[in-house]
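Consider a concrete sample entry:
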Amino acid sequence: MVVEDESAIRKNIVQDTPWQDHGITVCGEAGNGSAALGMLDQLCPDIMLLDIQMPVMDGIETLKEMETRQSMPGVIVLSSYSEFSYVQQAMRYGALDYLLKPFRPSDLVEAVLRVNARMAASQGASKESAIALEKLAVKNDNYVIKRAVHYIEQIYHRDIKLEEIARHVYVTPAYLSTRFKQETGISTKNYLHKLRIEEACKLLSTPAIRVYEVAERVGYTEEKYFFQVFKKYMHLTPMQYRKQKGLD
């Protein structure tokens, strides 16, 4: 069931997402929480895509109301990045997952399958289907990390924060930080430093480029900080590195 007040977004979710390719059926749609609650007993959806900000009754109020009912669908809340504090509230009131706008049709499908897997595992749907769906969730996590790495590689030369990377791959900073370290073995911060220092070593191989220029080109605005990071990873200062390579 899709609960979203913006008709264009709701239409895109319902009509432009390849639900049937994955055995998923949209059983109903509503423009606010009040209308959704009125349809809930009749439709009995397994999963609900629920927008946070809506008129009449918003997503949080809808979750609070559903919490008092005997049965509750698996809820995936839809929110913009600026509304993430509401997402945290939604999770406390029983939401199982969330998506940050804007999102792609594939993100919607994967979120629904991911929640369905969790519900299947907790309720005893077949074991095989639950395992298959969990594998899809892991595959999606891997894809997120690959996209994050690619983004870092494109913009490592400028000031970049975890929040920006997270926005680009449509996850929260906390989630990205945890999953990135699990997948790569290092934090996003250390990955960024490592990449910058690797690029710095390439630039230092050109004697005509001054050290402060190297620092700026790889994303360090303060030369002193660049020296500190370079020495930490290479165990040499930039000048010592050049001398060792016979470039000084």
Summary: The CA atoms of residues 60 and 90 lie 6 Å apart. The chain has three domains: 2-105, 142-185, 189-244. Residues 189-244 form a domain with the Arc Repressor Mutant, subunit A fold (CATH 1.10.10.60).
